[in-house]
TrEMBL record:
Pfam families: PGG. This is PGG domain-containing protein. The chain crosses the membrane at residues 30-51, 71-96, 117-142, 148-167. Residues 27-141 form the PGG domain. It comes from the Eukaryota. InterPro entries: PGG_dom (IPR026961). One of its GO terms (cellular component) is membrane. Keywords: Membrane, Transmembrane, Transmembrane helix.
Length: 212
């Protein structure tokens, strides 16, 4: 359907809000570009840490609580999952920076880019969270630590987590609300990878409404 000027409703809306649309896209791209640099630094540290921990006397039990082999397992699993999450965040940020369509600027959805940025942030924070147990395991493997030092490191990490959640409580609530809002209002032609999530969320809403 087109008006007398040959514009579709979508094209007319974009023409009316063109400046605001471009400013929103530019702001999201700048934020994603900054976070992409942070993710690059984190993945560099993770890969470097995974390659520099020496594998020696792996069957000895001269480490707190577990054998060295168990600590190695925890270390490499933390590094592997943290690196994968960091890579996924980099992909999300890159998809925010790169245009969806090079020829039609109106095809670039601001809300979809915001959702990608949110998923990238969640992946990045999860990667950072996994780097702490990797750091703890690496310290146990390299240094001869007493049990009280291990307790101190864990307590320090717990304090940092509590402080972060206390200060950024509203941020995480906003992230959850943003994702749920997108899933609730997602169009029928949403990306294939999001369709199962959207269906599960709609089923959950239906079940919750019936219970209410």
């Amino acid at each position: 359907m087109r008006n007398k000027d040959g514009l579709t409703p979508k094209g007319l809306f974009y023409l009316t809000h063109e400046i605001l649309h471009k400013e929103s896209i530019s702001g999201l791209q700048a934020m994603a570009n900054t976070l992409l640099v942070v993710a690059t630094l984190i993945i560099s540290l993770g890969i470097t840490g995974g390659m520099t921990i020496p594998i020696a006397d792996i069957n000895h039990r001269n480490t707190p609580f577990f054998s060295r082999k168990t600590w190695y397992t925890f270390f490499f699993l933390s590094i592997a999952f943290g690196t994968c999450l960091c890579v996924s965040s980099m992909f999300f940020y890159a998809s925010v920076i790169l245009p969806v369509c090079w020829s039609k600027a109106e095809e670039e959805s601001v809300r979809l880019r915001q959702t990608k940025l949110v998923f990238g942030n969640v992946s990045l924070f999860a990667s950072l969270a996994l780097m702490f147990p990797a750091l703890t395991c690496g310290s146990v493997l390299i240094f001869e630590l007493s049990n009280w030092i291990f307790y101190f490191i864990c307590a320090l990490g717990l304090i940092i987590l509590v402080v972060h959640l206390t200060l950024d409580y509203n941020r995480w609530i906003g992230i959850v609300c943003s994702v749920l809002s997108y899933l609730e209002d997602a169009p029928s032609d949403s990306p294939i990878i999001l369709r199962p999530i959207c269906k599960l969320y709609h089923l959950f809403l239906t079940f919750a409404k019936k219970k209410a």
